Amino acid sequence: NFMLTQPHSVSESPGKTVTISCTGSGGSIATNYVQWYQQRPGSAPTTVIYEDNQRPSGVPDRFSGSIDSSSNSASLTISGLMTEDEADYYCQSYHNNDLWVFGGGTKLTVL
Amino acid sequence: EVQLVESGGGLVQPGGSLKLSCAASGFTFSGSAMHWVRQASGKGPEWVGRIRSKGYDYATAYALSVKGRFTISRDDSKNTAYLQMSSLKTEDTAVYYCTVLGVSSSFDYWGQGTLVTVSS
Predict the structure, then answer these.
(1) Which of A25, A30, A93 has the alpha carbon at shortest distance from B105?
(2) Of the N and C termini of chain B, which has fewer Cβ atoms inside 10 Å?
(3) Which pLDDT score, from 0 to 100, does residue A52 have?
(4) pLDDT, mean over chain A
(5) CB–CB of A8/A106 below 8 Å?
(6) Mean pLDDT throughout A81-106?
(7) Is residue A70 helix, strand or coil?
(8) Mean pLDDT score, B91-98
(9) Do residues B33 and B101 lie in contact, with contact meaning Cβ atoms separated by under 8 Å?
(10) Smallest Cα–Cα separation from B115: which of B14, B2, B30, B18?
């Protein structure tokens, strides 16, 4: 089974940079695109990165995504942290067996 | 504007059945694959399954955790997708969302979700 593993939580101070990892197992993470979603309490997820490193319109360029094939992982980097970035973040990809997979999520605290 | 509105959630006993609906508007529903994703309280989203369009023979795919118990269908004349859930287990308790891919590979549009509680 293809799985995506994320750290449970990360924290950083306003203005700093934080990176959230998403490690694939049971397959190569580079085979299919990775997306990143932001979710605030009581709301549905919203896309912050699609197709590994693309930003939807309206998402600040403080958000960036990357893939590292050597570690079979994807990363979401948020620079110039703002208190409004505090949320849960989920990576998501697609497995060749016609299955969509989400990571378990990372709670970002900006303190 | 794309809108997805889920309905049909509620309290059901273990072993019971429930049918959810997802009414869609603002895009070409008949040409779009429709997905269902669920999220248990305090947990990450879990993809449940999807149904493709008529051009792909309404092909369905399901997560292993629901395969054989859940069935996704659609009525293009009503712009509505359905999730029929049977043999429900307590671990099926979650908010159920319908969602659709945008022009990219991401789930760009989500409904507000409907809560399904499986409990005796």
Answers:
(1) A93
(2) N
(3) 96
(4) 95
(5) yes
(6) 92
(7) helix
(8) 98
(9) yes
(10) B18
Q: Is A5 helix (H, G, I), strand (E, B) or coil?
A: strand
Q: Does B38 touch chain A (CB under 8 A)?
A: no
Tokens of A107: 């709670």
Burial code of A3-28, b = ≥16 C-beta within 10 A, e = fewer?
A: ebebeeebebeeeeebebbbbbeebe
pLDDT (0 to 100) of residue B103: 79
CA atoms within 13 A on the CB side of A41: 5
Q: Is B41 on the interface with A (CB under 8 A)?
A: no
B3 touches A at CB < 8 Å:
no
Residue B77 Cα, gap to closest chain A Cα (Å):
27
**pLDDT band per the 50, 70, 90 thresholds, residue A96:** confident
Instruction: Report pLDDT digits (tens) over B17-42.
Output: 999 999 999 999 999 999 999 999 99
B3/A26 Cα distance (integer angstroms) = 35
The Cα–Cα gap between A75 and A54 comes to 13
Nearest to B32 by CA among B44, B13, B50: B50
Q: Minimal Cα–Cα distance from B92 to chain A, Å?
A: 17
Residue A8's identity, in one-letter code, is H
- Take residue A33 and report the two structure tokens written for it: 């695109």
pLDDT at A24 over 90: yes
